[in-house]
Design brief:
7 helices, six-stranded mixed beta sheet, elongated, five-stranded antiparallel beta sheet, alpha+beta, Creatine Amidinohydrolase, 2 domains, 14 strands, Creatine Amidinohydrolase, Chain A, domain 1, 29% helix, 29% strand
């Protein structure tokens, strides 16, 4: 799904959402006297470029360049034969081909007369991409909190993860973890999940990849799911949970990389996060968790 079929449903994310996101970035550039913002994207790090343009590469890598004035430009290592497809599923019109992204960026800067450019999360750029006169721009500077279009996608992803996992848990007991995960993957993929990580445990370990073990009455399952570039995490256990002692871990979902561990004190208003609880009952480790949004007064379930 993720790279077998890429599309843009404008009812889910309208073009106006991208206009607002680009304007936020351009306002930041103006305040910092930067001529453009460079966003690196590849098959492993695609969500930031997707946030601003809806572009997600099948393979290879690219630089999305957002000028302080004017429309964004994609410097792309992909063959020009796929450019009509790119234009059909993104806001992009100008796409420039080439294998040497740094050289292409230098040419664009010379052409436009740009002296200083920002680079989104510059320390995370590949070592071979040296951005000339690049100034590091933190992700939170241009993405302080998820917007309404993002929240809609996150909530759809969480609803999908929650409903399918809860409906399928009773069927897992007695199945091998391979079979149960295959059953879940079929359900999730048909519902539109783009990327998926499913882990299970019989209560003796944390949730782990499948090994062929038969699932018993103390098994738990954890699902990390991506829908349209928006990651959520949900975990459930088959056994009912009493008021047993628990340990909780928090993972940030709305940062540049999903699933970075953090504390509650690290969460700003509007941040999206997952809480992963571990309970101990009858000598077994039971796991449950869900995805949340930090609000001024309290956290809201996505």
């Amino acid at each position: 799904m993720k790279r077998g079929w890429i599309t843009w449903d404008k009812k889910e994310i309208p073009p106006t959402a991208f206009e607002k996101r680009l304007n936020t970035a351009k306002d930041y550039l103006a305040k910092r006297d930067l001529d453009a913002l460079v966003v690196y994207t590849d098959i492993w790090k695609s969500n930031q470029g997707r946030y601003f343009s809806n572009f997600m590469p099948y393979w290879n890598r690219a630089l999305l360049v957002i000028p302080r004035e004017g429309a964004p430009v994609l410097l792309c290592g992909l063959s020009p034969r796929v450019y009509p497809w790119i234009r059909s599923v993104t806001i992009l019109e100008e796409i420039r081909p080439g294998a040497n992204l740094v050289q292409m960026l230098q040419q664009l800067c010379a052409e436009k007369g740009w002296a200083r450019v920002g680079a989104l999360d510059l320390p995370q750029f590949p070592a071979d991409l040296s951005i000339p006169n690049g100034v590091d721009v933190p992700w939170l500077a241009v993405h302080p909190t998820p917007d309404e279009s993002e929240l809609l996608m996150y909530r759809r992803a969480a609803k999908m993860a929650r409903e399918i996992l809860e409906a399928e848990m009773p069927f897992g007991m007695g199945m091998t973890d391979h079979d149960f995960i295959g059953r879940l993957e079929l359900k999730f993929r048909r519902a539109g999940a783009e990327d998926l990580v499913i882990l299970t445990t019989n209560g003796d370990t944390p949730p782990l990849p499948p090994t062929g073990a038969k699932l018993g009455d103390s098994f738990s399952a954890a699902v990390a799911l991506e829908y349209r570039g928006h990651w959520v995490k949900v975990a459930r256990c088959l056994a009912g949970l009493a008021d047993a002692p628990k340990e909780s871990k928090i993972e940030l979902l709305s940062g540049p990389y999903p699933y970075e561990y953090c504390s509650r004190a690290d969460l700003n208003d509007g941040a999206l996060f997952a809480v992963f609880d571990e309970y101990r009952e009858r000598g077994k480790r039971l796991f449950s968790g869900d995805s949340w949004r930090q609000a001024p007064e309290k956290a809201d379930l996505l």
